[in-house]
Each structure stands twice: as structure tokens, then as C-alpha cells.
């Protein structure tokens, strides 16, 4: 019986001493010859990771997922309910309730605990529902983090006056809106504060408050009776029937967080501030400083829980940096929201059209029902493919990762079923590749392809070993796959016979991205085949096409759902390659 | 043609599926599964040391499931307010009751997943259900004294949430590389009683004959949306099947005979027949005919979904191959 050493979460909450020393020296600029600050992921000290926003909205709910770089991901959702005014002193004020959850999904050490809010009115916090209690300082640290996010949200949005509580009133003294904003940290890769706040604010901006109809507004006698008896029929109208309204937000505060590294020896008071720290930097830093500005450059909040000493001049310098960064994110958020709004409107139109069509077809004649299906499935499918293609290519802000698109699965016919699935994804990629490959400059790639031959030769020896071990397993599992022959359609690339369909599929996918390159590659790799084994050929082609891909930014879209992040910031095109997984 | 289902599909058609493996990086394995408008995110940490030492078992591992709390309160609104998507006119009365009730008890006494208000399952029960479903297919004896922690986040809920959560958790387990002896795939069915069969195509299921033996005919819809779940008299069942054991020859009816008054049912237990791991019923009561026809439908649905899972994992492996070995 094999013995497994159970892992615990120490790796996620502490660093080894050498790693810590290395990070700190790099961050303080001690180790480099020019004295410049270095970061382990190659960013400049005031450079942040690319942000990806994705929105969704339905009746009485809006969600936003924020991803910072590859590591940090957080989601927020907003919904509202009608309640009697919770505060007797203020019968016209609505209420906003924030909930922040930093759970075990974010990081191994986190637990199912709930942060404590100062403004939890009339709610009993179920702290005892923690999934697995346990002692130690881990839950304490985690609760600190979630508390910090919660209080930051409350301070900027509630106390800071960006949400107008009085505007949330529906009927004075009778009904007000209570907004629930729930933020979850899905992945903690550092700088959870910025991600959570951005998600919450973005969701609030994207949310639309539904209309309310007050019953009995025809007859005055009835309404006064109803009001006096304490009950009046109030309905929340569905968002498809009546257009909902945006929330009354005066301004949009966003945050920028710095990790501070001070000199431990105390000889100098120089403090390095790194913008948008990732998880290692957060663990090694002395303190975290968070600034909150809105797009007008007004300061909404400062959060500096300590950790190192800052001189006033350093504080103001970092505030300028924070202001610039917040304004940047504000603009990014605006563009993302505009696009999300148009998409939501589009969805709503489609839904209404579909409802109308269904109503017509259900209530119409037999003839009309038979003519409808002829039109609808075809156009829907084409439109769907078109939408898929456009989405896959659109890497402006608000980009949604192009999913593995599946057609509707029909029961019973498995062979046909698989073909439907793969061919739709396949065709979509094909179409998008064909449209972009026209833009790609041909000449640029060919010399590059030839040039990397030497490199791949060296790599071949090391990679070959791996490919050999992978291959037998692959053949065992995939031999019975009935659908692989279908993928041979577009290009019979390999000169030698391929018995492993898995690797052939790899090659096929590559061919979509680099349609013109494969021919010169073919001739050059033929003499390289030492043995009849096909794996070296396959593996070599991958690095080659990878290299060429990196030169053309337009191809990034196809890679996007692979590992790279789409550039959410239109203005700032990244000069170096984004971090690959 | 316009089908009788509100979501305008054939009874045996699943919604469009889309999956992404390893979206999260701090977790050992994660999967994001979208089934139509239902979007579930599952994260696996494991095998790790348990926090409470007396929870660990010396001979095998433990699966611990947690539904992410942040979304629990969100689901309440969805459940009470009917469907979140689908443009059919809402039943507005639901909203009133919901809001008035929720002012009194603002703690989480409501349902963790958007089940119809008659469901009555609590968060714990669903977590235990998931834990049982996953424990039976993971080789826990390989991980003694360890915990495999599963966290489920409901990003969007539009029907079939529990079934999709099971599938998403299984994909995350595959992503984490946890040793499994079978592939648990869930299918959600809703059994609709209808007095007359409208079209012959609706009864694709083999057991249509069986339904005709009884006077009440049952149509089984696969993969219901929230709107379909909340219909009157709809009984839902989530069936988790070990998809690695499904035989390739489908359409072999496993029910050989049913006595006239339905108190004796002979099942043809073939050696390579689908193995049902567990099931969960909610909603209105389900008739036996409905349950049996649901089982038949689930088998096919699970086989199709297993093929989809394979595709998703293949894509991930290829992606890794490109990025890690380039």
C-alpha cells in the first residue's frame, strides 16, 4: 500500500526563507546592478496584470467575474428584494447588504467562515456553520482578509455615498429595496482586494433594478384603505416586460493596491511599492496599501493597516500612482460595461422574439408551425456559429472565453452525436482561422519556421522521451474511439502512417491556426524522422507553430481559450508575451 | 416544430454544453461547466490533511463537500421568483410571498439550490448527496488519512443544478488527477404526466409501451430548465450512473416484465448494464412509471455526457501538451 503524505496548507501561507529573501531583495532593488526594482513575473513596479471582465444579467440579478492575470479570480452577484424600511428612523432609506466569501475555493487554507460586518442589521451570522472548524491562525488570517474586503466595500460604497440610499425607496415608509451584493473569491492569486471590489462595483453598475407596480392606483378609496390596513398589492414586474432601470450610483470608486517592501535593517527609509501584487509578493511583503479613487480623481478611501512605516512624501507619491491606476481601471470598466449592456439588450430582444415566435406557433395554424421550423433551426445555427466566431475573435474588453461549443446532444445516435459536436467546434475554428489567416503576413513566418529547426532538434531528444511514454497510454484509451477518422477530413498532413489518432488530432488542430506553414514544415521534417515512430514529428511541429503564433497578435484569439488571456485593455497592448500556464 | 416543452426542445435533448478545465489555479483541480444557462464551478483540493484530526480515517480517505456560501442567498430569489430566463410571463404572486417571508427570516433557511419550494432539501442534505455520489467512484483506499475537499459554486442557476453540480465535480476530480474507479455522471429528468401523447416523436423512449400499459402516460424531459422544474405536478429525479459501465448497445430495455398491478417488476440485470450509483428526487411525487422511464432516459443522457467529458479532457490534455512541452 502506498503511503501518502497528506499535504497541508503551509505552502500557501508561508514562504521559505531563501525565497522570501530573494523576493524582497528583488523588490527593493538591492540585488540588481542598476538598483531597479525587479519582479518575479517580469512586470514593472507600477504595472498591473491584465484584467478580464465578464458580465451576465437576468431578471433581478447581475453577475460579474473579474480575472486579474492568470491567478486571481473573483465573482460578484447583485440582486434586490422589496422589504419594509429596516430602519425606523429613516423610512425612506433602502439598504445595501454586502457579503464577502473567501472560501476554500480560493485557496487551500481558507475555510467556510463568514466575515463580520458592522452593518449587519437584524441578521444572525451563522459563524458556526464553518465546514471544518479547526484552530490555528489560518482562519484568523483568512477572516482578516475577508473582513478587510467587506469593510472596504462598505466604506467606499455605503458611507462614501456612492449609492444613494434614498433613491432605493419605492414607497415612502412602506417598501424599499434591499440590495444584496455577494462577492466570492474564486481563486486567490494575490490582490484579492482589487479583484473583489472591482467585481462588486462592476456588478452594481451592470445591475438593473426592476420596475414595481403598485396595485390599486385606480380607486383612491381602495388604496387608502389598503395602505391603512398595511397591505397593498405590489408586484415586481419581470424585466422582459418593463425595462428596468440602473442603480442610483453617484460615482464609481475603484481600488488600487500596493505591496510595500521596506528595509528591514532600517538603514534607509526607502520603501518599494509594487502595484497589483501576486500571491508570492503578498506573502513576502511588509504591508498592503489600498487606495480608492473614482474616475474624477477624487479619493474615496485609504486603507493602510500598517506593517511598515511610510513617510508622508511616500504616501502622496503612491497616491498619485494609485489615482492614475484607478482612472485607468475606470475607463476599462466603462468600455466593458457598454459592451455588456449592448449584449444584454441583444439577449433580451432575442428572448422576446423567441417568446413571440413560440406564442405564434403554438396558437397558430398547422401550416404556420410547419413553416417556422424550416427557418428557425437553420438561421439559429448559422447565427450561433457566427456569434461564436465573433466572440472568439473579439478580444476587446469584456471578452468571454470561447467555450467548447456543443450542439444539442441527441439521444441514441452516438456516432452521429460525436460528429455533430466536433464538427461544429471544428468548423467554427476553421472559419475563424480562415478569416484571420488572410491578414497574417506570409513571409514573416517562413524564415522563422526554418530558423527554429535547430532548436527543435535539441529539444527533440528530451521531448521524445516524454512523447514515448505518453503514446502507449493514449493508444490504449483511444483505440476504440469511433469518431477520430472524421477529423482526418481537412488535411492529410502526415506522410507516414499514423496509428495514433490522438496525436493526429493534435496536428489537425495546429493546422487550423497555421494554414500556410505546414507545407514547408513537411519537407523539412521528413529527413528528421529517425524511427518510424511518429511522435517526434508531431511534437516538433508544435513548438514551431507556437513560435510563429507568438509573433502575430491576431492569432491570439484562438489561443485565448487555451491559456493566454485576451487583452482587456484596448489601449495598452502588452509588449511581452503574457504568462503562459 | 414547436414542442410542448417550455424550452422548445425535444424531450430527450440536452441543452448546449460547454466546459473549461482548470480555470482556477490555486485549486488542485477545477472545472467550470455550463449547461444551457446553468453555470457551475467546482474546485477540488486533495488529497490534503484534514483540519480536525479526529475526522480522519486510518484506512481510507474522506470526501468533504461544501456549497459555496456566497451564492446560497442568491439562490433564494431565483427559487421563489420562478425562472430566471425564458420570456414567459412570470407568476407575480410568487414574488410577493417571497419578499414578505424573507423580511422575517433573513438567515439562510431557504434552499441552497433552486429547487421548487416544495422540495424542502437543506444545504447539508445536498452536500451529503454529492459526497455519497463521489465517494462511491473515488478510490478512497488510496488516500488514507486524507481529505478530498470539494467546493461547488453556483454561478448561474437555471434548472438541473444538482445534476450539473455532480458532473462538474466529477470533471474537476479528473482535472485534479484523483484516482477513480468509475465515472459518475448525473442526469436530471422531470416526469410530466400527460393524459394524451401529442406526437409520436415525443415518445422516443423505449418504455413508451410500458407507459401505455398503465392508463397514465408519462413523458420524461431530460435536463429541465428552472421554468420546467417549477411546473405544476412535475417530479424531478437526479440519477447518477456509473458511465464507464454503460454498454454500447443501447435500446436494450432492462425491464423485462411488470405485473399488472405494478407490484412486481422484474429487472433484467445484464452483466454490463448501467450501474446506478445514487439518485435524488424532488418536486412533486413521481410515479413508478415515471421513475423507470427516467432511468432509461438517464442512461442515454449519461452516455452522451460521458462522451462530452472525454472531449473536454482531451482538449485540456492537448492544451497542456502545447504549453508545457513547447
Number of helices of chain A: 15
Low-confidence regions of chain B: 70-120, 195-215, 249-254
Inertia-based shape of chain B:
globular
Integer-rounded radius of gyration of chain A: 29 Å
Order of adjacent strands in the largest pleated sheet of chain B:
1-2-3-5-4
How would you classify the quaternary structure?
Answer: heterodimer
| N-C termini distance of chain B | 49 Å
Low-confidence stretches of chain A: 120-137, 216-229, 365-380, 394-400, 406-423, 437-581
What portion of residues of chain B is helical? 25-40%
Structural class of the helices, strands and pairings of chain B? alpha+beta
Rg over CA atoms of chain B: 20 Å
Give the SSE map:
The complex is a heterodimer of chains A (581) and B (326).
Chain A: H1 10-13, H2 17-28, E1 51-58, E2 61-68, E3 72-83, E4 95-102, H3 138-159, E5 169-171, E6 175-187, H4 192-206, E7 208-209, E8 212-214, H5 220-229, E9 234-236, E10 245-246, E11 254-262, E12 271-275, H6 279-284, E13 287-293, E14 299-303, H7 312-363, H8 366-393, H9 414-437, H10 442-451, H11 453-478, H12 501-513, H13 518-525, H14 535-551, H15 556-560
Parallel strand pairs in A: 4-6
Antiparallel strand pairs in A: 1-2, 2-3, 3-6, 5-6, 7-10, 8-9, 11-12, 11-13, 13-14
Chain B: E1 17-21, E2 29-35, E3 38-48, E4 62-67, H1 72-80, H2 92-104, H3 123-135, E5 147-156, H4 161-176, E6 184-194, H5 208-213, E7 217-222, H6 226-229, E8 235-242, E9 255-258, E10 265-267, E11 275-283, H7 288-324
Parallel strand pairs in B: 4-5
Antiparallel strand pairs in B: 1-2, 2-3, 3-5, 6-7, 6-8, 8-11, 9-10
What does this structure look like?
The complex is a heterodimer of chains A (581) and B (326). The two termini of chain A are 34 Å apart. Helix content of chain A is 43%, strand content 15%. In chain A, strand 13 (287-293) and strand 14 (299-303) form a beta hairpin. Chain A has helices at 10-13, 17-28, 138-159, 192-206, 220-229, 279-284, 312-363, 366-393, 414-437, 442-451, 453-478, 501-513, 518-525, 535-551, 556-560, and strands at residues 51-58, 61-68, 72-83, 95-102, 169-171, 175-187, 208-209, 212-214, 234-236, 245-246, 254-262, 271-275, 287-293, 299-303. The N and C termini of chain B lie far apart (49 Å). Residues 70-120, 195-215 and 249-254 of chain B have low confidence and may be disordered. In chain B, helix 3 (123-135) crosses helix 4 (161-176). With 326 residues, chain B is an alpha+beta fold. The interface between A and B is large, with 106 and 96 residues.
Amino acid at each position: 500500500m502506498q503511503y501518502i503524505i497528506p499535504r497541508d496548507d503551509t505552502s500557501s501561507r508561508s514562504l521559505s526563507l531563501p525565497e522570501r529573501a530573494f523576493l524582497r531583495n528583488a523588490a527593493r532593488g538591492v540585488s540588481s546592478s542598476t538598483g531597479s526594482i525587479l519582479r518575479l513575473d517580469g512586470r514593472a513596479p507600477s504595472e498591473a496584470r491584465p484584467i478580464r471582465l465578464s458580465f451576465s444579467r437576468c431578471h433581478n440579478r447581475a453577475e460579474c467575474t473579474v480575472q486579474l492575470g492568470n491567478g486571481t479570480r473573483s465573482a460578484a452577484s447583485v440582486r434586490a428584494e422589496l422589504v419594509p424600511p429596516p430602519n425606523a428612523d429613516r423610512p425612506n432609506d433602502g439598504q445595501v447588504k454586502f457579503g464577502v466569501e473567501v472560501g476554500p475555493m480560493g485557496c487551500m487554507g481558507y475555510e467556510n467562515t463568514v466575515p463580520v460586518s458592522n452593518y449587519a442589521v437584524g441578521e444572525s451570522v451563522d459563524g458556526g456553520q464553518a465546514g471544518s472548524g479547526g484552530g490555528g491562525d489560518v482562519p484568523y488570517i483568512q477572516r482578516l482578509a475577508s473582513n478587510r474586503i467587506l469593510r472596504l466595500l462598505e466604506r467606499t460604497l455605503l458611507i462614501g455615498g456612492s449609492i444613494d440610499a434614498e433613491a432605493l425607496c419605492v414607497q415612502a415608509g412602506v417598501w424599499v429595496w434591499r440590495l444584496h451584493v455577494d462577492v466570492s473569491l474564486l481563486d486567490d492569486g494575490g490582490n484579492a482586494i482589487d479583484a473583489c471590489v472591482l467585481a462588486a462595483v462592476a456588478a452594481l453598475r451592470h445591475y438593473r433594478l426592476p420596475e414595481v407596480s403598485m396595485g390599486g392606483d385606480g380607486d383612491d378609496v381602495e388604496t387608502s384603505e389598503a395602505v391603512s390596513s398595511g397591505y397593498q398589492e405590489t408586484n415586481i414586474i419581470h424585466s422582459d416586460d418593463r425595462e428596468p432601470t440602473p442603480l442610483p450610483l453617484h460615482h464609481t470608486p475603484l481600488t488600487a493596491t500596493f505591496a510595500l517592501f521596506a528595509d528591514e535593517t532600517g538603514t534607509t527609509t526607502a520603501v518599494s511599492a509594487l502595484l497589483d501584487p501576486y500571491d508570492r509578493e503578498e506573502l513576502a511583503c511588509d504591508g498592503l496599501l489600498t487606495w480608492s479613487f473614482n474616475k474624477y480623481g477624487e479619493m474615496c478611501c485609504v486603507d493602510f493597516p500598517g506593517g511598515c512605516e511610510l513617510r508622508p512624501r511616500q504616501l502622496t507619491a503612491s497616491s498619485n500612482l494609485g489615482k492614475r491606476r484607478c482612472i485607468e481601471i475606470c475607463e476599462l470598466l466603462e468600455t466593458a460595461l457598454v459592451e455588456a449592456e449592448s449584449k444584454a439588450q441583444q439577449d433580451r430582444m432575442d428572448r422576446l422574439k423567441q417568446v413571440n415566435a413560440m406564442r405564434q406557433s403554438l396558437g397558430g395554424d398547422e401550416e404556420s408551425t410547419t413553416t417556422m421550423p424550416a427557418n428557425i433551426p437553420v438561421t439559429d445555427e448559422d447565427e450561433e456559429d457566427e456569434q461564436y466566431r465573433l466572440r472568439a475573435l473579439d478580444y476587446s474588453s469584456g471578452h468571454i472565453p470561447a467555450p467548447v461549443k456543443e450542439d444539442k446532444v441527441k439521444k441514441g445516435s452516438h456516432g452521429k452525436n460525436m460528429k455533430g459536436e466536433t464538427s461544429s467546434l471544428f468548423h467554427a475554428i476553421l472559419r475563424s482561422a480562415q478569416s484571420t489567416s488572410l491578414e497574417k503576413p506570409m513571409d514573416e513566418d517562413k524564415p522563422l519556421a526554418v530558423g527554429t529547426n535547430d532548436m527543435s532538434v535539441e529539444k527533440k531528444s528530451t521531448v521524445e522521451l516524454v512523447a514515448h511514454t505518453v503514446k502507449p497510454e493514449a493508444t490504449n484509451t483511444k483505440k476504440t474511439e469511433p469518431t477520430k477518422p472524421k477529423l482526418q477530413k481537412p488535411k492529410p498532413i502526415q506522410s507516414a502512417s499514423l496509428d495514433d489518432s490522438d496525436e493526429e488530432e493534435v496536428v489537425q488542430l495546429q493546422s487550423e491556426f497555421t494554414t500556410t506553414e505546414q507545407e514547408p514544415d513537411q519537407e523539412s521534417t521528413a529527413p528528421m524522422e529517425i524511427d518510424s515512430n511518429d511522435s517526434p514529428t508531431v511534437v516538433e511541429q508544435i513548438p514551431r507553430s507556437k513560435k510563429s503564433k507568438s509573433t502575430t497578435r491576431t492569432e491570439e484569439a484562438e489561443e485565448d481559450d487555451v491559456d493566454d488571456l485576451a487583452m482587456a485593455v484596448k489601449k495598452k497592448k502588452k509588449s511581452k508575451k503574457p504568462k503562459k500556464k | 416544430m414547436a414542442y410542448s416543452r417550455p424550452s422548445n426542445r425535444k424531450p430527450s435533448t440536452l441543452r448546449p454544453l460547454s466546459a473549461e478545465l482548470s480555470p482556477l489555479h490555486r485549486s488542485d483541480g477545477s472545472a467550470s461547466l455550463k449547461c444551457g444557462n446553468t453555470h457551475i464551478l467546482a474546485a477540488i483540493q486533495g488529497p490534503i490533511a484534514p483540519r480536525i484530526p479526529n475526522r480522519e480515517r486510518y484506512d481510507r480517505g474522506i470526501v468533504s463537500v461544501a456549497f459555496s456560501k456566497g451564492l446560497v442567498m442568491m439562490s433564494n430569489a431565483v427559487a421563489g421568483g420562478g425562472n430566471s430566463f425564458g420570456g414567459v410571463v412570470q407568476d407575480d404572486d410568487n414574488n410577493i410571498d417571497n419578499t414578505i417571508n424573507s423580511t422575517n427570516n433573513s438567515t439562510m433557511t431557504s434552499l441552497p439550490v433552486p429547487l421548487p419550494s416544495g422540495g424542502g432539501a437543506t444545504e447539508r442534505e445536498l452536500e451529503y448527496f454529492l459526497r455519497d455520489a463521489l465517494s462511491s467512484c473515488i478510490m478512497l483506499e488510496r488516500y488514507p488519512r486524507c481529505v478530498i475537499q470539494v467546493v461547488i459554486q453556483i454561478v448561474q442557476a437555471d434548472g438541473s443544478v444538482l445534476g450539473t453540480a455532480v458532473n462538474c465535480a466529477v470533471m474537476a476530480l479528473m482535472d485534479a488527477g484523483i484516482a477513480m474507479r468509475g465515472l459518475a455522471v448525473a442526469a436530471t429528468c422531470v416526469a410530466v404526466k400527460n393524459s394524451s401523447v401529442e406526437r409520436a416523436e415525443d415518445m422516443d423512449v423505449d418504455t413508451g409501451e410500458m407507459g401505455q400499459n398503465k392508463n397514465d402516460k408519462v413523458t420524461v424531459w431530460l435536463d429541465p430548465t428552472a421554468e420546467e422544474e417549477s411546473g405544476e405536478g412535475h417530479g424531478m429525479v437526479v440519477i447518477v450512473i456509473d458511465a464507464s459501465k454503460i454498454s454500447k448497445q443501447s435500446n436494450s430495455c432492462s425491464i423485462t416484465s411488470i405485473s399488472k398491478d405494478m407490484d412486481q417488476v422484474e429487472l433484467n440485470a445484464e452483466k454490463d448494464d448501467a450501474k446506478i450509483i445514487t439518485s435524488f428526487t424532488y418536486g412533486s411525487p413521481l410515479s413508478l412509471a415515471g421513475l423507470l422511464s427516467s432511468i432509461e432516459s438517464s442512461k442515454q443522457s449519461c452516455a452522451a455526457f460521458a462522451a462530452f467529458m472525454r472531449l473536454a479532457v482531451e482538449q485540456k490534455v492537448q492544451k497542456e501538451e502545447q504549453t508545457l512541452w513547447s
